[in-house]
UniProtKB/TrEMBL annotation:
One Pfam entry name: BUD31
The family this protein is said to belong to: Belongs to the BUD31 (G10) family.
Organism lineage string: Eukaryota, Fungi, Dikarya, Ascomycota, Pezizomycotina
Protein name: Cell cycle control protein cwf14
Biological process, per Gene Ontology: mRNA splicing, via spliceosome
Organism: Ascodesmis nigricans
Organism domain of life: Eukaryota
Cell compartment(s), UniProt: Nucleus
Broad class of the protein's primary localization: nucleus
Protein backbone atom coordinates (compact mmCIF):
# COMPACT_ATOMS: atom_id res chain seq x y z
CA UNK A 1 0.00 0.00 0.00
CA UNK A 2 1.44 3.42 -0.89
CA UNK A 3 2.14 5.81 1.96
CA UNK A 4 -0.52 8.41 2.63
CA UNK A 5 0.46 12.03 2.35
CA UNK A 6 -0.61 14.30 5.13
CA UNK A 7 0.29 17.71 3.72
CA UNK A 8 -2.09 19.38 1.31
CA UNK A 9 0.82 21.05 -0.49
CA UNK A 10 2.43 17.74 -1.42
CA UNK A 11 -0.60 16.69 -3.46
CA UNK A 12 -0.42 17.69 -7.10
CA UNK A 13 -3.68 19.19 -8.38
CA UNK A 14 -5.45 17.38 -11.23
CA UNK A 15 -4.74 18.57 -14.77
CA UNK A 16 -7.17 20.64 -16.77
CA UNK A 17 -10.20 18.73 -17.98
CA UNK A 18 -10.65 16.74 -14.77
CA UNK A 19 -13.63 18.85 -13.70
CA UNK A 20 -15.65 17.65 -16.72
CA UNK A 21 -15.31 13.97 -15.78
CA UNK A 22 -15.16 14.36 -12.01
CA UNK A 23 -18.90 13.81 -11.51
CA UNK A 24 -18.85 10.51 -13.41
CA UNK A 25 -15.80 9.31 -11.48
CA UNK A 26 -17.53 10.30 -8.25
CA UNK A 27 -20.55 8.21 -9.28
CA UNK A 28 -18.22 5.24 -9.82
CA UNK A 29 -16.63 5.84 -6.40
CA UNK A 30 -20.04 5.91 -4.72
CA UNK A 31 -21.11 2.73 -6.51
CA UNK A 32 -17.86 1.09 -5.41
CA UNK A 33 -18.51 2.05 -1.77
CA UNK A 34 -22.01 0.60 -2.00
CA UNK A 35 -20.67 -2.62 -3.53
CA UNK A 36 -18.00 -2.95 -0.84
CA UNK A 37 -20.48 -2.47 2.01
CA UNK A 38 -23.32 -4.50 0.49
CA UNK A 39 -24.37 -7.54 2.51
CA UNK A 40 -23.16 -10.82 1.09
CA UNK A 41 -25.20 -13.30 3.08
CA UNK A 42 -26.42 -16.16 0.96
CA UNK A 43 -23.77 -15.62 -1.71
CA UNK A 44 -20.83 -17.85 -2.37
CA UNK A 45 -17.42 -16.54 -1.36
CA UNK A 46 -16.35 -15.67 -4.89
CA UNK A 47 -19.73 -14.10 -5.81
CA UNK A 48 -19.26 -11.35 -3.22
CA UNK A 49 -16.54 -9.65 -5.30
CA UNK A 50 -18.28 -9.77 -8.69
CA UNK A 51 -19.90 -6.34 -8.31
CA UNK A 52 -16.55 -4.78 -7.38
CA UNK A 53 -14.93 -6.28 -10.49
CA UNK A 54 -17.80 -4.99 -12.65
CA UNK A 55 -17.54 -1.41 -11.35
CA UNK A 56 -13.76 -1.40 -11.65
CA UNK A 57 -14.07 -2.64 -15.24
CA UNK A 58 -16.64 0.05 -16.10
CA UNK A 59 -14.50 2.82 -14.62
CA UNK A 60 -11.41 1.65 -16.51
CA UNK A 61 -13.43 1.32 -19.73
CA UNK A 62 -14.77 4.86 -19.23
CA UNK A 63 -11.23 6.30 -19.00
CA UNK A 64 -10.03 4.11 -21.91
CA UNK A 65 -12.83 5.26 -24.21
CA UNK A 66 -12.36 8.91 -23.29
CA UNK A 67 -8.71 8.79 -24.28
CA UNK A 68 -8.47 6.25 -27.11
CA UNK A 69 -11.93 6.21 -28.73
CA UNK A 70 -13.36 9.71 -28.23
CA UNK A 71 -10.05 11.54 -27.74
CA UNK A 72 -11.83 13.78 -25.22
CA UNK A 73 -9.05 14.03 -22.62
CA UNK A 74 -5.40 15.01 -22.84
CA UNK A 75 -2.44 12.66 -22.43
CA UNK A 76 -1.51 14.47 -19.23
CA UNK A 77 -4.96 13.90 -17.72
CA UNK A 78 -4.98 10.27 -18.87
CA UNK A 79 -1.61 9.58 -17.22
CA UNK A 80 -2.74 11.38 -14.06
CA UNK A 81 -5.92 9.24 -13.90
CA UNK A 82 -3.87 6.07 -14.25
CA UNK A 83 -1.39 7.19 -11.60
CA UNK A 84 -4.18 8.21 -9.23
CA UNK A 85 -5.79 4.76 -9.55
CA UNK A 86 -8.94 5.72 -11.43
CA UNK A 87 -8.23 3.07 -14.09
CA UNK A 88 -6.30 -0.18 -14.33
CA UNK A 89 -3.18 0.38 -16.46
CA UNK A 90 -2.57 -3.33 -17.18
CA UNK A 91 -6.17 -4.00 -18.20
CA UNK A 92 -6.13 -1.05 -20.59
CA UNK A 93 -2.86 -2.31 -22.05
CA UNK A 94 -4.57 -5.63 -22.82
CA UNK A 95 -7.57 -3.90 -24.42
CA UNK A 96 -5.23 -2.34 -26.99
CA UNK A 97 -4.09 -5.80 -28.17
CA UNK A 98 -5.95 -7.81 -30.76
CA UNK A 99 -8.15 -10.52 -29.25
CA UNK A 100 -8.42 -8.84 -25.86
CA UNK A 101 -10.73 -5.92 -26.76
CA UNK A 102 -13.55 -7.17 -24.50
CA UNK A 103 -11.45 -8.62 -21.67
CA UNK A 104 -13.30 -8.38 -18.36
CA UNK A 105 -10.43 -8.80 -15.91
CA UNK A 106 -6.81 -9.88 -15.84
CA UNK A 107 -7.52 -12.95 -13.72
CA UNK A 108 -9.37 -14.53 -16.66
CA UNK A 109 -6.22 -14.77 -18.78
CA UNK A 110 -3.85 -15.95 -16.06
CA UNK A 111 -3.33 -19.67 -16.56
CA UNK A 112 -2.16 -20.22 -13.00
CA UNK A 113 -5.59 -19.18 -11.67
CA UNK A 114 -7.37 -22.19 -13.23
CA UNK A 115 -7.42 -25.86 -12.36
CA UNK A 116 -6.03 -27.14 -15.64
CA UNK A 117 -3.56 -24.38 -16.53
CA UNK A 118 -5.72 -22.80 -19.24
CA UNK A 119 -7.58 -19.51 -19.59
CA UNK A 120 -10.99 -18.93 -18.02
CA UNK A 121 -14.17 -20.37 -19.57
CA UNK A 122 -15.48 -16.89 -20.34
CA UNK A 123 -12.61 -16.43 -22.83
CA UNK A 124 -13.86 -19.31 -25.01
CA UNK A 125 -16.02 -18.07 -27.92
CA UNK A 126 -19.63 -19.21 -27.57
CA UNK A 127 -19.55 -20.83 -31.01
CA UNK A 128 -16.85 -23.24 -29.79
CA UNK A 129 -18.77 -24.39 -26.71
CA UNK A 130 -20.44 -27.76 -27.20
CA UNK A 131 -23.53 -27.28 -25.04
CA UNK A 132 -25.43 -24.17 -26.16
CA UNK A 133 -28.00 -24.46 -23.35
CA UNK A 134 -25.39 -24.21 -20.59
CA UNK A 135 -24.90 -20.80 -19.01
CA UNK A 136 -21.21 -19.96 -18.99
CA UNK A 137 -20.18 -17.74 -16.12
CA UNK A 138 -16.72 -16.91 -14.87
CA UNK A 139 -15.98 -17.82 -11.27
CA UNK A 140 -13.46 -14.97 -10.91
CA UNK A 141 -15.60 -12.00 -11.94
CA UNK A 142 -19.07 -13.22 -12.98
CA UNK A 143 -18.49 -12.48 -16.67
CA UNK A 144 -20.70 -14.34 -19.13
CA UNK A 145 -18.26 -14.16 -22.01
CA UNK A 146 -15.53 -11.71 -22.94
CA UNK A 147 -14.04 -13.43 -25.98
CA UNK A 148 -13.56 -11.01 -28.87
CA UNK A 149 -14.89 -13.59 -31.32
CA UNK A 150 -18.44 -13.50 -29.87
Amino acid sequence: MPPTRTHARSRKPPPTGFSEIEDTLLDFANAMKDAETAPHEGKKKYEATWEIFRISHQRSRFVYELYYKKEAISRELYEWLLKAGYADRQLIAKWKKQGYEKLCCLRCIQAKETNFGATCICRVPRARLTDESAQVQCVNCGCRGCASGD
